[in-house]
Amino acid sequence: MPDEGFSYRFSSAIVRQPGRSVVRGLRAVDRGAPDFERFQAEHREYVGALERAGLKVRVLDALEAFPDSVFIEDAALCLPEGIVMLRPGAPSRTGEASLLAETLAGLGYEIIPCESDGFIDGGDILLIDSAILVGLSERTDLRGFEWLKAILQGWGYPVQAVHTPEGILHFKSDCCVLDSQTVLATHRLSRMECFASFRVLTVPLGEEAAANCIRINDNVLVPAGYPATAELLAREGYAVETVAVTQPSVLVGGLSCMSLRYHSLAMVSHKGTLSSATR
Length: 279
Ligand code: CIR
Hints:
Blueprint: E1 12-16, H1 36-52, E2 56-60, E3 76-79, E4 82-85, H2 96-104, E5 111-112, E6 125-128, E7 131-136, H3 142-154, E8 159-163, E9 175-179, E10 182-185, H4 187-190, E11 199-202, E12 214-216, E13 219-223, H5 227-235, E14 239-243, H6 246-250, E15 260-262, E16 268-270, E17 273-274
The protein binds citrulline.
């Protein structure tokens, strides 16, 4: 298992451009389609925020055949020991992982292909330095979890399955890591047993969508439009940057799912250990 900070200190990220087909992306409640041009503009802003947090960002071309492929985090899990290809649970997203694997192979990491007949989405995997929590959800089942657990335990990670309450698409739709000891979670998740050993900051009522933040190096990206959450985090001493995700949110997408954050191989000095450059 790697050093403290591995779950939020990164050097690099990969994102995928939204295609025009994003207007046909999956949604929980049909409130109409997202606007493609606005989606693109928000995506550009998002890339800028990742860069300002210190990441070198690679932007992949859109995949028109996969309307939801902009939500790239669901197809792979990047760890200092290797990259695990996942198997997103929505039928229309089958195929995203194998296309992405071709790109990820170029990073130099060992790539673990998905050999499960179960399903697992990256949006259900919460990395905290001392634990990996995997939400069983509409998209992630027990078989997918057991398969991933065997790989991650082989690398020395404590892994735990947790329940994703009904009505929440992915576990991380409602929580995120803020540092080695702290998570941000909605009321419906904050009292869960899996968070008992952590300090939990609870998202103010009415701002549930703001739980999908991302801590990257010294910044915390927070969805724009949730002032009470931004204020709470700033009061706690985090460097907050707000990013608009009005169009991704039409498709139940948020900040975490639009990038794969990772440590460049040069920063992993030996198996699983990050060099001081990332700390
Ligand atoms: C989907 O339903 O798969 C996409 N419309 C949204 C995926 C968002 N991913 C995530 O929260 N990890």
